Amino acid sequence: MFKPKVSIKTAAPRDPEASLLIIYTGGTLGMVYDKEGTLIPFDFEQILDRIPSLSRFNLQLTVLSFEELIDSSNATPETWQAIGAAIRDNYELYDGFVVIHGTDTMAYSASALSFMLQNLQKPVIFTGAQLPIGAVRTDARENLLAALEIASAKNHRGDALVPEVCIYFNYRLLRGNRAKKVQSILFDAFESNNYPLLAEAGVEIQYKQEAILTPDYAKPLSYSCCFDNRVALLKLFPGMEPRYVEHLLELPDLRGLILETYGSGNAPTFPWFIRAVEGALAAGKIILNVSQCLGGKVMQGRYGTSRLLEDMGVLSGYDLTSEAALAKMMLILAAEPQIEAAKKRIISPCCGEMSLQ
Ligand code: ASN
């Protein structure tokens, strides 16, 4: 399904400023309408034809297109592995990577890739669009062109300006594992409420160097690609049926639960709920508390309604997004059979995904 299909190289400029690999997975950016008026994925060759200005960049571009292009609602950890493998296999050959991806699950994929590619020294810029590239008012052209420019940007030492996994969308560059899709209609589809923008594109692209990670140039890229999907996400709501929650928490092979709580990490103190959480923890499951709020953070113990969670051993996800929490937990559970070691890694920041203060 995710075998890379074709490599299309643009005519090589004589002395290119940078050489980039575009990984095309699908999404609205490259879709066309079928006879029923439904959007379906489309071939990249025609996309290149639709952006003639691409050839005005002094860049060597290579396109790796997946055999089966997907709407990102069909993304799975195999999709993340395929993107990761394409980057790892070509890491030394390119200065940067642009991943064309559907917007619906882009924040999950960008989060996953940020955890898979540790000590990254090159840009991995996810982008996509709300309207297909063929639409008259499309946002695809600007998004793709700016993503390419950012992926090729270097400082005076020749190092990448943004050596991170990011999402570029609607004139803004966000850290991938801090981003959330917040809009399905407007072009301004992504937010990063708990972390500043990494760059803003206007007449010029303004990079916020103080917000961008600095890698350890002495260390090589470290790549992990296994995910354990025996995890679940439970969003709390008033009126939850105890049986459903108990059933989920008692599932014997469930290893981890992301609990989407209210406000600063609060949950009901009903005895049935406390018993269900206690039982799951006693059975060796890991429970990670993240907030339903778009901004702010979990502060277990601030209210009585989160004190119990803290006392029972529920982990605080601080200001993690649910998307990043899921991807991080799935990757760590696959790597760590030891529950205490897994817990320790889950609450330790590793690539700018959470702030403990
Ligand atoms: N359904 C599309 C996708 O995620 C939405 C988009 O790309 N704008 O693939």
UniProtKB/TrEMBL annotation:
Q: Write down the species.
A: Cesiribacter andamanensis AMV16
* Tree of life domain: Bacteria
Gene designation per UniProt: ansA
- Give the EC number: 3.5.1.1
Entries under Pfam families matching the protein: Asparaginase, Asparaginase_C
What are the recorded Gene Ontology BP terms?
amino acid metabolic process
**Keyword entries, A-Z:** Hydrolase
List the active-site residues. Answer: 28, 103
Q: What is this protein called?
A: asparaginase
Chain sites annotated for binding substrate: 72, 103-104
Domain L-asparaginase N-terminal intervals: 20-211
Which molecular-function annotation in GO is an example for this chain? asparaginase activity
Alphabetical list of InterPro entries matching this protein? AsnA_fam, Asp/glu_Ase-like_sf, Asparaginase/glutaminase-like, Asparaginase/glutaminase_AS2, Asparaginase_C, L-asparaginase_C, L-asparaginase_I, L-asparaginase_N
Name the top EC class. hydrolase
Query: What are the Asparaginase/glutaminase C-terminal domain coordinates in residue numbering?
Result: 230-343
